[in-house]
Write a structure and sequence with these properties.
The protein folds into 2 domains: 159 residues, 3-Layer(aba) Sandwich (Rossmann fold); 28 residues. Helix content is 50%, strand content 12%. The protein is built from 8 helices and 5 strands. α1 runs parallel beside α7, α1 packs antiparallel against α8 and α2 runs parallel beside α7. It is elongated.
Length: 207
């Protein structure tokens, strides 16, 4: 499988953005005004970046199995208004599943959203327990490269952030990076007098 799907992530996420905004509106209408992203590594880092960068005070992250961290991630006073985003590409991350089981004993199924690949253990749990939503994690995007997929855009939408602007800026940066690389290549070729490399070798990534 070609694991370079992250190169198309801005375009694909732009196509999903309106649906994510509608999901966020429904969540807020049900009184779930606080988001807790439960995940390890790449599944939670982008949410942490969004919260810190944009000051999203109701976006929180749990990426530690320390008992105090788990208990403190959703205090009893906040439990009823918390939406839990359980994120794992493989769907079998032990820590992430442990988070789910802990909070499932304390919250309603409609307070959970899963982000995972189809057919994973987490996917099966989400379907069986009737989560509010199960959002597919792209098969061709590794977890550490998933910031501009649903892994990052679901927390962005739930926090009321302008994900569309973020994705459109990412697209422009991608094109600019390609054009910059092509100019450098042309300059080096001109300076060295080397033979011309076929342009197809430097074609832009598919969109």
């Amino acid at each position: 499988m070609n694991m370079l799907g992250w190169m198309r992530a801005p375009d694909e996420s732009l196509g999903q953005w309106d649906d994510l905004v509608a999901l966020a509106a429904a969540v807020r209408a049900d009184g779930l005004t606080r988001t807790l992203v439960c995940g390890m590594g790449g599944s939670s880092l982008v949410a942490d970046v969004l919260a810190r960068t944009f000051g999203a005070r109701d976006l929180h992250i749990l990426d530690s199995t320390n008992p105090e961290a788990v208990r403190g991630a959703s205090p009893p006073a906040d439990l009823a208004r918390t939406l839990f985003v359980v994120s794992s590409k493989s769907g079998n991350t032990v820590e992430t599943l442990a988070y789910y089981h802990y909070f499932a004993a304390r919250a309603r199924p409609e307070q959970f959203i899963a982000i995972t690949e189809p057919g994973t253990p987490l996917y099966d749990i989400a379907r069986a327990q009737k989560f509010r939503a199960v959002i597919p994690h792209p098969l061709d995007v590794g977890g550490r490269y998933s910031a501009l997929t649903a892994v990052g855009m679901v927390p962005a939408a739930l926090s009321g952030l302008d994900g569309r602007a973020l994705l459109e800026r990412a697209r422009r940066v991608d094109v600019a990076a390609f054009e910059g690389a092509r100019r450098v290549r042309q300059q080096r070729r001109a300076a060295s007098g080397s033979r011309r490399i076929p342009e197809t070798a430097w074609s832009a990534p598919p969109r």
